[in-house]
């Protein structure tokens, strides 16, 4: 299990870094309670590309013994933000649109990896596409747009 120290200093975008375990040196966001509860999901800057990953646990499984489709879509949405991070910089964003196609099943213990690209980055909208894979086989293709926002909306 990868560990993020409780006193970890967050990066400019709020990400914190694992210091031990399988994902030591990788980053994750802890401000999104849904992703934190359903992950942990990780991302790593490899210079020429961003790679995202998570190790499948029992909590990710559906009743048929494969990873729940909602888990894969949640991870793909996480990937959208990791991919767009260099474009968004210090701004925040919200998912404006998301599309995915299931290609193959994933099982407990497998490593799921996400890669992709920014197709176009406008002033307020970033367009991306990517692929989730496991053991070299594609499992989910996805595309989406993220809208840049200046500040989080306050509840009414």
Q: Which helices and strands appear, and what pairs or packs with what?
A:
Elements: E1 15-17, E2 27-29, H1 33-38, E3 42-45, E4 50-55, H2 69-88, E5 92-102, E6 111-121, E7 125-134, E8 137-149
Antiparallel strand pairs: 1-2, 3-4, 4-6, 5-8, 6-7, 7-8
Overall description:
It is a single chain. This protein has 156 residues and is of the alpha+beta class. The protein has 2 helices and 8 strands; from the N terminus they run ββαββαββββ. It has helices at residues 33-38, 69-88, and strands spanning 15-17, 27-29, 42-45, 50-55, 92-102, 111-121, 125-134, 137-149. The strands form 2 sheets. It has a 6-stranded antiparallel sheet with strand order 3-4-6-7-8-5, covered by helices on one side. The protein starts with 14 loop residues before the first strand and ends in a 7-residue tail after the last strand. The mean pLDDT is 89.
Using only C-alpha atoms, the radius of gyration works out to 15 Å
Low-confidence stretches: none
- Anisotropy-based shape: globular
How helical, in percent, are the residues?
Answer: 10-25%
């Amino acid at each position: 299990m990868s560990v993020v120290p409780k006193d970890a200093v967050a990066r400019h975008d709020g990400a914190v870094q694992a210091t031990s375990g399988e994902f030591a040196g990788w980053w994750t966001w802890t401000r999104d309670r849904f992703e934190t509860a359903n992950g942990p999901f990780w991302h790593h800057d490899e210079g020429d590309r961003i790679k995202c990953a998570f190790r499948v646990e029992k909590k990710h499984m559906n009743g048929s013994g494969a990873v729940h489709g909602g888990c894969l879509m949640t991870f793909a949405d996480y990937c959208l933000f990791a991919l767009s991070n260099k474009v968004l910089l210090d701004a925040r964003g919200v998912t404006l649109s998301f599309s995915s196609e299931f290609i193959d099943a994933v099982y407990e213990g497998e490593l799921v990896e996400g890669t992709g690209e920014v197709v176009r980055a406008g002033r307020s909208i970033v367009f991306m596409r990517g692929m989730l894979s496991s053991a070299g086989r594609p499992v989910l293709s996805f595309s989406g747009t993220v809208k840049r926002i200046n500040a989080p909306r306050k509840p009414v």
